[in-house]
What we know:
Oligomer: single chain
Number of strands: 0
Structural class: mainly alpha
Radius of gyration: 24 Å
Helix content: 55-70%
Shape: elongated
Number of helices: 3
Amino acid sequence: EMQRSLVGSEMCIETVIGVLSTVAYVLVMAIIVFTIIDKTVGLRVTKGEELDGLDIHEHGCSAYADFNFRL
């Protein structure tokens, strides 16, 4: 029995369905993963860490020694 091949618009429709299903899967999985991360360890730093700069809190020193920016 001969296999039917996709041609023209059928191939385009199959490609669009594949792309949309992949985008939907990635979106759902990203929401699940980021929700788990947010509920466990958090996604944001504290206000103090943000104002001081993450390099000080993460590495113990300033990445830009001469840069002094305060609000």
